[in-house]
Design goal:
The complex is a heterodimer of chains A (about 160) and B (about 250). Chain A is α+β, with helices and mostly antiparallel strands and about 160 residues long. Chain A is built from 5 helices and 6 strands. Chain A folds into 3 domains: about 35 residues; about 90 residues, Nucleic acid-binding proteins (OB fold (Dihydrolipoamide Acetyltransferase, E2P)), CATH 2.40.50.140; about 30 residues, no CATH class. Chain A is elongated, with a radius of gyration of 23 Å. Chain B has one domain: Four Helix Bundle (Hemerythrin (Met), subunit A). Chain B has 9 helices and no strands. The longest helix of chain B has about 35 residues. The chains are: A alpha+beta (about 160), B mainly alpha (about 250). Chain B: It holds the Pfam family Cytochrom_C_asm. Chain B: This is Heme exporter protein C. Chain B: It is a multi-pass membrane protein. Chain B: One of its GO terms (cellular component) is plasma membrane.
Chain lengths: ~160, ~250
């Protein structure tokens, strides 16, 4: 390779690695800010080395699994309350509004709102989180014992609590 | 290897090679996209939780994958353009960028359409969605820079530098769902472990992935051929190519 090209190659690769390294350091420094949500464990135990816990009145997002059997609805209004967990600690979510199609007990969700007690969040928005598993209904029934219910059929509305 | 590659630095040799490949890519693209997407949309079984809504995956995943693949390819030709200063490599940047930008836009749009009923929102500023949006802006930036200068070679150089700097974003997009908590789910098929879907769903998805790869390749070939013709319009071989033997005869008389 002629020296002129070698020099240009050096400059170009240097540029790419320089940008990659600086961007990597930036993203590492703000790693906790890039997270979309906090887990119930982080809310319970505190975040990072300083164990910073959220204060009452703070706005944040919490993501976790809906605890089986924890969904309680008010039959007169759209009020709903449920608990979310990840590895142990549970956080109670209060919400008023329409839940997304994928909302089920055992399903991952992300709730955005205001902490009104140390472990209670009053949500303004509840989003369902989907995992990367896809399978036909027959297979799901065999493997997990999940009865498939079309969310648009009447059957779905007769079920209590929207469990699958 | 250099001796084998070197003829393609010339426009004419590249033009003829691309002309030979284009019909193959086009035919395979039509077959792959029609069979893969058609099978996926009409015949694959529904998902146990999402019902029929999951079928957007047969368009969303291929578009997203090749939006990143095109950018990586563009960065490789940008490196060649900067270091070896080969003109066909510079033109390739302009051939690839709009194709990749459209793939990025398709992935963002299909994702939003799927997100509304499934997640409950069109858009969320999570790491995966945001980094994919940045990819779209990078593509637009590359296209804009390429055309921003009077002198085409200066524009190509500037676009090449942005492609090389921007390629850092591609691994960030791919690993964003593993590095941070995101609303977007992790990869179903582009991982080393077994795909998290049964063969009845994965087969049409693989065919659609193949079809979209061929489609991307065909569009890039087609654009690069046009670009070569446009840039070398004054060369005798282009006149011969476009006007056929008539022109050669008239000139001879």
């Amino acid at each position: 390779m002629i020296p002129r090209r070698k020099k240009r190659l050096g400059w170009t690769l240097g540029l790419v690695f320089g940008v990659a390294a600086s961007l990597g350091l930036i993203l590492y420094a703000m790693s906790e800010q890039v997270d979309l949500f906090y887990t119930p464990s982080q809310v319970h135990d505190g975040l990072g080395a300083d164990k910073v816990k959220p204060v009452v009145g703070q706005r944040l997002r919490i993501g976790g699994m809906v605890v089986e059997g924890s969904v309680q609805r008010n039959p007169q209004t759209l009020e709903v309350s449920f608990r979310v967990t990840d590895t142990g600690p549970e956080v109670t979510i209060l919400y008023q509004g329409i839940l997304p199609d994928l909302f089920r007990e055992g399903q991952g969700i992300v709730a955005q709102g205001v902490m009104i007690e140390p472990l209670v969040l009053e949500a303004t928005e509840v989003l369902a989180k989907h995992d990367e598993e896809y399978m036909p209904p027959e297979l799901a029934e065999q493997m997990k014992g999940i009865k498939h219910v079309n969310p648009n059929s009447n059957e779905a509305y007769n079920q209590d609590g929207g469990s699958p | 290897m250099w001796r084998w590659l070197h003829p393609y630095a010339k426009g004419e040799a590249s033009y003829r090679l691309l002309g030979k490949m284009l019909p193959w890519f086009s035919v395979l693209a039509v077959i792959g996209v029609v069979v893969g997407v058609g099978w996926g949309l009409a015949f694959a079984p529904p998902d146990y939780q999402q019902g029929d809504s999951y079928r957007i995956i047969f368009i969303h995943v291929p578009a997203a994958l090749y939006s990143m693949g095109s950018f990586t390819g563009m960065a490789i030709v940008a490196l060649i353009a900067l270091v070896w200063q080969i003109r066909t490599a510079e033109w390739s940047i302009n051939a690839i960028a709009p194709v990749g930008a459209v793939m990025t836009a398709i992935s963002l749009f299909t994702g939003a359409v799927w997100g509304k009923p499934m997640w409950g929102t069109w858009w969320e500023w999570d790491a995966r969605l945001t980094s994919q949006l940045i990819l779209l802006f990078l593509y637009i930036g590359v296209i804009a820079l390429y055309h921003a200068f009077e002198d085409k070679r200066t524009g190509a150089k500037a676009a090449a530098i942005l492609s090389l700097v921007g390629v850092v974003n591609v691994p960030i997009i791919h690993y964003s769902v593993y590095w941070w908590n995101t609303l977007h789910q992790t990869s179903t098929i582009t991982k080393f472990a077994k795909p998290s879907m049964p063969m009845s769903m994965a087969t049409p998805l693989y065919i659609a992935l193949f079809g979209f790869a061929m489609l991307t390749a065909a569009l890039i070939c087609w654009r690069l051929r046009n670009e070569i013709l446009k840039q070398e319009l004054h060369r005798p071989w282009v006149q011969q190519e476009l006007l056929g033997d008539n022109a050669a005869q008239t000139e001879g008389q």
